[in-house]
């Protein structure tokens, strides 16, 4: 016997049977069946929410739900942003979901807070029954390409949801749902969010988990455009090359295998984003770990142009001499006819950049000694009026521009981090919680100069 107390419209019902009798009496009297209490509950919401809980009364609950529907109850009223259909989805009650859909519940209704559809709600709360619910919603006419308030389609939800650690069963379940969505017409190249990103770009950002990695492979195998660029010019290859060091060694493996997959699928290695970066310059800029160095080698072996300059005037080699700590890779790049006598937009030579890297513990004297054997003018001064040797006598290198936003008219700050970084303006400092160079958090900062 059920003894759970139900409260509705400030009245208490000792059992579910008592509440069912109340509802059926309201139906018979022709009263307003859409009335909502102070918690926005309706009779229908309470019945749907408790149908599984009170299994002994399930038959009566289902019967009364059908009577409410026959009497014209509003299926689109919301409680906590959800319709009754979405509530049934959260409960995984396929019988009730079917009843509601057959009664005309809107399978494309979007909640009032996040713009989520029933499909999105299903995938955002994936369970053992989710595959069957997705299948039912698709069969019932769910629009697979609607976007939520953040610009995400239901397919974009998948890599975002499984970017954390999940068990293998959940990964398999999600992969099967993704296959069904794609087969049913979900756009794999839809440009969403505020930067026109695709689902492959999202997967490329979070492919450190095996689940997302397999989603990325599925997208590529399904014909996703590997050369799509978002509104800032980023491609999936750039994203993977930039973020390979963001996670554990296991994550590095998945990123690297995705980069291989993208290259094999015809990714353009030399596309540039709004900062002029290519996949190679990103891998070179963040080459302080073995994983990125392997990407540098892979991209060059695949034919990436090593002499492309970004908007700061730096090439792959510029970043390698400052950040890689790898003489072997630098020598390999130079052997591929990399330009060595270049100047970036601050008039820094490779010698300047290496010296700066030495002070930041991202380069070393072996690299500098090698560079000194090349045909690079050792007397050249940069825009700060310094030759490269000047930086080896400083406690830190102070930039005259912000090397994050490239502003030239804001105060520069020095972070209290291991490398005493002084390369960011005060506005960018407030937006970061760790040094962009040594990757360590900083306790505080000081404003040192107006540039």
TrEMBL record:
Look up the record and report any one GO term of the cellular component aspect.
nucleus
Molecular function (GO) terms listed?
transcription cis-regulatory region binding
Taxonomy of origin reads: unclassified sequences, metagenomes, organismal metagenomes
Q: Which InterPro entries match?
A: Ankyrin-SOCS_Box, Ankyrin_rpt, Ankyrin_rpt-contain_sf
Matching Pfam families: Ank_2
> What is the protein named?
Uncharacterized protein
Q: Tell me the Gene Ontology biological-process terms attached to this UniProt entry.
A: positive regulation of transcription by RNA polymerase II
Swiss-Prot/TrEMBL keywords:
ANK repeat, Repeat
Q: Does the keyword Repeat apply?
A: yes
């Amino acid at each position: 016997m059920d003894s759970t107390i139900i409260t509705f419209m400030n009245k208490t019902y000792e059992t579910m049977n008592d509440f069912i009798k109340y509802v059926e009496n309201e139906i018979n009297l022709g009263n307003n069946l859409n009335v909502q209490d102070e918690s926005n509950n309706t009779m229908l919401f309470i019945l749907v929410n408790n149908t599984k809980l009170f299994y002994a009364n399930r038959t009566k609950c289902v019967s009364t739900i059908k009577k409410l529907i026959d009497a014209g109850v509003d299926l689109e009223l919301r409680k906590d942003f959800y319709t009754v259909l979405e509530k049934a989805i959260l409960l995984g009650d396929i019988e009730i979901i079917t009843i509601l859909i057959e009664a005309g519940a809107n399978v494309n209704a979007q909640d009032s807070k996040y713009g989520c559809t029933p499909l999105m709600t299903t995938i955002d709360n994936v369970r053992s029954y989710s595959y069957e619910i997705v299948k039912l919603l698709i069969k019932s006419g769910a629009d697979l390409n609607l976007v939520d308030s953040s610009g995400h389609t239901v397919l974009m939800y998948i890599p975002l949801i499984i970017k954390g650690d999940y068990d293998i069963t959940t990964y398999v379940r999600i992969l099967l749902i993704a296959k069904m969505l794609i087969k049913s017409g979900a756009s794999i190249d839809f440009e969403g969010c505020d930067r026109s990103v695709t689902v492959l770009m999202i997967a490329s950002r979070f492919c450190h988990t095996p689940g997302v990695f397999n989603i990325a492979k599925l997208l590529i195998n399904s014909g996703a455009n590997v050369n799509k660029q978002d509104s800032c010019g980023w491609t999936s290859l750039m994203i993977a090359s930039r973020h390979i060091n963001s996670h554990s060694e296991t994550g590095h493996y998945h990123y690297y295998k995705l980069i291989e997959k993208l290259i094999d699928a015809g990714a353009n290695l030399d596309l540039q984003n709004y900062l002029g970066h290519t996949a190679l310059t990103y891998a070179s800029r963040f080459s302080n770990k073995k994983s990125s160095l392997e990407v540098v080698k892979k991209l060059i072996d695949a034919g990436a142009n090593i002499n492309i300059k970004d908007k700061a005037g730096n090439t792959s080699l510029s970043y390698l001499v400052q950040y890689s700590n790898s003489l072997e890779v630098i020598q390999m790049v130079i052997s591929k006819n990399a330009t060595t006598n270049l100047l970036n937009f601050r008039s820094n030579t490779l010698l300047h950049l290496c010296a700066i890297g030495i002070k930041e513990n991202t380069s070393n004297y072996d690299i500098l000694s090698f560079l000194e054997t090349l045909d690079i003018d050792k007397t050249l001064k940069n825009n700060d009026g310094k030759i490269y040797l000047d930086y080896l006598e400083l406690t830190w290198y102070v930039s005259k521009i912000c090397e994050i936003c490239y502003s030239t008219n804001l105060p520069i700050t020095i972070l209290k981090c291991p490398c005493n970084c002084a390369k960011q303006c005060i506005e960018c400092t407030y937006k970061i919680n760790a040094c962009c160079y040594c990757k360590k958090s900083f306790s505080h900062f000081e404003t040192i100069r107006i540039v």
